[in-house]
Structures are given as C-alpha cells and as structure tokens.
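Here is the promised in-class demo. Please do not try to memorize the tokens; focus on the logic of going from shape to residues.
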C-alpha cells in the first residue's frame, strides 16, 4: 500500500483510533490540526470530534458524546463521500450506529456500553501516487 504519502500524524492518529485509544488519537490529530492550513483543518477537526465523542461515551458522558458526534458530522460532511482515503459515508454511519447502540445498552450502573464490534475501523485507500516530474 502507498499509505506513506499520507501525513505521518494522520496515520498515527488512525492507528490509535483503531486501537480504541480515542484520547490519544485526538491528541495526535490535534497536533496535525494545528499544523495544517486551509479546508483540511475542518476535516481533522471532524476526526478529532469523532474520537472525543467515543472517549466521552466510554466515560458515560452521553450529552458530550452526542454533541461531538453532531460536530463530527458537521465538519466531515462537506468532505463526503471520500477524503484523504477515508470513506466518510461508511465512517459516519458506523460512528452513528456505535453511539446509538451504546445508548440503548446500558450497564447496571446506567452507563452506555460500547460494543467493540460496532466501533468504526478506519481503513484508508492507498494514497495517490505523485508524479516525480511534477513539482
């Protein structure tokens, strides 16, 4: 795969997200968000919000999770259906299913229970090859 053409912080954040280390993925993507200029800042802000939504959900903060899922949809929506190798339609649908399911399956203490099988996994398309003759 040609994923090396993607920014290393983007890939590291994905790696952390796919390990369900949502707080750390948010930290990595935030570092990238601070570096990037232009429209891609909104894309990374949406990924950050998705990661933090799952972090809050896992800690029982339902209100925060719902608010951040809405934010993720807001920031990632304009990049649909695919951006930076990520199928945003599938990612956002999976995020919604995961959160909705957790809100109806509560622990004995009344906290949402996240089904690990429903957490969306981020799989990228290979990065487009750059023509070595173009500068």
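The designed amino acids, position by position:
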């Amino acid at each position: 795969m040609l994923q090396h053409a993607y920014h290393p912080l983007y890939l590291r954040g994905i790696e952390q997200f796919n390990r369900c280390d949502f707080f750390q993925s948010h930290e990595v993507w935030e570092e990238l968000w601070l570096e990037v200029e232009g429209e891609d800042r909104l894309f990374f802000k949406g990924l950050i919000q998705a990661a933090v939504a799952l972090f809050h959900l896992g800690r029982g903060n339902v209100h925060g999770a719902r608010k951040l899922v809405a934010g993720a949809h807001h920031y990632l929506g304009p990049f649909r259906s695919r951006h930076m190798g990520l199928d945003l339609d599938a990612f956002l649908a999976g995020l919604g299913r995961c959160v909705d399911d957790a809100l109806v399956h509560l622990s004995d203490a009344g906290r949402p229970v996240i089904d690990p099988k429903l957490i969306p996994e981020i799989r990228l398309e290979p990065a487009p090859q750059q023509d070595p003759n173009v500068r």
